[in-house]
Amino acid sequence: MFTQIQPADLLAIIPEIGLVLLAFLVMIYDLVWPKSRKRNLGFLTAGGLAIITALLLTLGYPEGEASSAFGGMIRHDMAAVIFQTIFLVAAAITSLLSVDVEKLRGGEFFALLLVSTLGMSLMASATDLIMIYVAFETTSIPAYILAAYFRRDAKSPEAGLKYFLFGAFSSAIMLYGFSLLYGYTGTTHIYTIAQVFAMGGPAAPLLVAAVLVIVGMGFKISAVPFHFWAPDVYEGAPTPVTAFISTASKTAGFAVLLRFFLAGAVGMAYAANDWVPILTAMSVGTMILGNLLAIWQTNIKRMLAYSSIAHAGYAMMGVVALTTVGATATIFYLAGYVLTNLAVFAIVILFSNLSSSDEIKDYAGLSRRSPYLALAMMAGLLSLAGIPPLVGFFGKFFLFQAAVEANLTWLAIIGVLNAIVGLYYYLMVIRVIYLFRAEPEVEAIPIPVPRSYGFAVAICVAGIVALGVYATPLYHWASEAAAALF
Amino acid sequence: MDFPILPVITFTPALTAIILLLIPQEKKTEVRVTAAAGAFVCMALSIFAYFAYDIEAAKAATTWAGKLQFVFGPFPWLEALGISFYMGADGLSLAMLALTGVVIFAGVLISWGIDDRPREFFVFLMLLVTGVFGVFISLDLFQLFFFYELAVFPMYILIVIWGWKVTREYAAMKLTLYLLTGSVVALVGILAIYYIPDMAALDAAGLCNADGCHRTFDLVRMSEMAASGMFNVDVQFLGTTVGFEQLWFLPVFLGFAVLAGIWPLHSWSPDGHVAAPTAVSMLHAGVLMKLGAYAAMRVGIQLLPNGAQQWLPLLVVLTIVNVVYGSLVAFVQKDFKYVIGFSSVSHMGLVTMAFATMTTVGYVGGGMQMFSHGIMTALFFAVVGIVYDRAHTRQIPKLGGMAKVLPWTAMAFIIAGLVSMGMPGFSGFTAEFPIFMGVWKAGETIAPYYRIIAVLSATGIVITAAYVLRIVQQVFFGKYEGEKWHDMRPSTALDKTALVLLAAILIFVGVYPQIMAPLIESAVTPLVQTLGGV
Question: Looking at residue B147, what is its pLDDT?
Fold first, then answer.
């Protein structure tokens, strides 16, 4: 099966090669550089990731037909490239956001971040059950450690342990589902499996396999009912790690979910197949539960955790539409969501560096202390809520459109009503920022914005607004990627 | 290419907002002057566009497309989905543009005294105005929705930060949730309309070429498709077969009509108006509610004419509740500003009632009423703001004799009051009279009970006269207790400018309605014909 490595195969793994090299480089410089220069590790990581992204989009850009590489282990297509770009950008911004968090200034932090990104990058391109599983674990294991990185802190190790237990358990269940599929078809290549089931497969085992796989992927995207870990982990983990998990890791889950299910590995992508109603029900449940629980949160990280659960629910609408338009909408939505959530987390990190608080009520007076930061926060929250002219508006519009196109008008209605609930709790935060006053002595302290943060926030906000006005390039890219999934 | 006046009008406020953000926060005077300059440009350009409209050409044209002028676009925005950037205006749009321009300029003048973060205040105000302009001249359905959402949201911030401390948080949230819920439900309807034509219909509409068929959000195209009955198909709903237009008319029309304050979805409106700062109340009651009515007409009625024919004769019952109930509630209010808030509910009821007549004369009245009420209510709220800034109370029983210190303000209120009573010689008459004529005529063409509605709604006018006169008597005349008011001062020159500007327009349109009626008539004729009206 594993014949020979073609030179073209190497082009398919440009990001992976780059990430491994960069991780080594970071560890070497960690040894070489004195403590005073450790801050530069973050810039090294971000710069390296920018170079890798540039290489991916030039040398590694797929031309013409999608091609298999490494004997069918991975596929080099537009879907893989767009997701890899999202991960690389998210990792780069995360590392910019980490440089001024005192306790994260170590080579191993950035190396783990890069290894986790490596796993995600493979998740985006994996087309083999074994490869998917390996990529899953490569993503998760560094993420467990990252979540527990503040080891003297009370909440961080708890977060890491919880994340690990949930993660290990659900990926084991997923592996069992894979084994069923292998047992029935004798192959681990998902497109070959799909061919076997194209004419319809054994209903009951397929359903069992689908459910087991959904458990594993549902955990990764924090969909209800596999979301329990998210609020605790988000709250306890170092905030840059939370930003990373809530954006890149979730998107990676979607990358696999889209490829696996739309390929038809557990039965063709027709509404009549058993896994479709399951995912639809999860989409509805995820939206509703995430939004309703987010309303009551007083800690901004927990609120963002529930809101990110709700966003997974929206994004799933595009998956269950089972159309190219739907997959396009999901990919576009995720790209916009990653950018937006990173912007919001950037401000949360800045704020907690200064005041060491994540309580929403402590954001009072932010608009007086730092008007531009408050404006950026508002842009981020409103983009999450789906207000124009911000990228979230287009994202939601595409999703609802896909749902209506697929005759799921009822789902679109549930979606829009949920968007209103979401708007409510985002507005509550905006209200605190703009309306409430802090103590006069607190309000007098401006919030210093280090250059790296300013840069990261500026990139995110510029992206949010630019894509919110002219979404066309990203939409076209996403639709090319979606076409590669079918 | 001609000077692209419509996009310039739309984006002038947005540009002003960006410039404002670059001015340091402390330079408050510069901020105010910049905002006023931006608003003045908007007003001047929108009035210029109004008078530059070629009414003879519009009268000669028979289709809606033929009546559109200053057309800009369509330029591809997102071609894959048939979304384009496409602007153009008919007579009604231009009347609404002029209204918006005037109200925003007056609003900026009235808000001169805002001292808490004026920069942010004007930034949000200007963003909102961009949204408002954008909706009135959108010829693309997606673009219309985009601007609609853009117009609604800044309201929340404006009310919650600069509003009346007692109710602002509640009112702002209520308003935002009501309006956005309405609009997103309408959005699903818009998407349903977008997807309803099948391939054969798309081909018949000329939307197919060699690479296949392309759906479109182009409002002109969609209106043509609607007029030719292309959306009038049967669909399955909960196991029964229903007409598509009949099914979706209510969600779309009511979704937008929430913003027009239709009963029983109006309750955000008085609360919101009262809690908002003066300029925002002016803009909100004066312009934003028209946005709801305009979108409900443009999308709901124009794209779903068969649904409209079925539902509007029933919805007219809601509008009569608006008119009578709104004015009754206004009559019993003790708070000066609530009186005006409920009067808006009552007067906007007349607009939706005009839509329900499905006659040309009714629609002309509806369009006139949108303009007249916009200016009038802006004047009302300006007066309330001026009085409240000085008296620090709005309780009618506590006020009295204000005409002694604020003669200009009192005069302005009386003029607005006469307009709202529909007195001949003022713009209210030129708006309400055709509406009642239309309703009466609908008694012949649609159903006899329209005549009862006409009679009932006339009682609304009587009640209006009662509450207006009550305020005039108790607030502006009566005994003036000078020692009670510590902060009493004459109105400023800027205030007077705003008041005179608004009042003059009300009188001018009242005396010379021909300046507006033909424009609106030319704009609504194709729509009324589609509805089978006369």
Answer: 92
| Distance separating alpha carbons of residues A347 and A447, to the nearest angstrom | 10
Contact call for B160 and A431, based on CB within 8 A:
yes
Identify which of A416, A435, A476 has the shortest CB distance to residue B188. A416
Contact B177 A430 (CB under 8 A): no
CB atoms within 10 A of CB A64: 5
> Is A174's pLDDT higher than 90?
yes
pLDDT digits (tens, 9 = 90+) for B340-363: 888 888 889 889 999 988 888 989
Pairwise CB contact (< 8 Å): A416 & B142: no
Neighbouring-strand partners of residue B335: B395
Q: Is the complex ipTM higher than 0.90?
A: no
Report how far residue A293's alpha carbon sits from residue B307's, in angstroms, rounded to the nearest whole number.
39
Q: DSSP secondary-structure letter at B80?
A: G
| Token pair recorded at residue B415 | 């003029």
> Of the candidates A387, A419, A472, which has its C-beta nearest B77's C-beta?
A472
Per-chain mean pLDDT for chain A: 89
Question: Cα distance from B433 to chain A (closest Cα, Å)?
Answer: 39
The answer on pLDDT for B376 being more than 80 is yes
- Residue-wise pLDDT for A75-130, tens only, equals 888 899 999 999 999 999 999 988 888 777 778 899 999 999 999 999 999 999 99
Alpha carbons B92 and B240: distance in angstroms, whole number: 39
Quick: pLDDT tens for B388-410. 888 888 888 787 777 778 888 88
Share of chain B above pLDDT 90, in %: 17
Q: Which residues of B touch A476 (CB under 8 A)?
A: 80
Report CB contact under 8 Å: A404, B187: no
Model pTM?
0.91
Q: What is the DSSP string of B445-502?
A: HT-THHHHHHHHHHHHHHHHHHHHHHHIIIIISS---GGG-SS--PPPHHHHHHHHHH
Q: How many domains does chain B have?
A: 1
- Residue A126: name the closest of A172, A55, A168, A72 by CA: A72
**Which of A217, A483, A473, A218 is CA-nearest to residue A327?**
A483
Is omega for the bond preceding B76 within 30 degrees of 0, making it cis? Answer: no
- Alpha-carbon span A243 to A249, nearest angstrom: 10
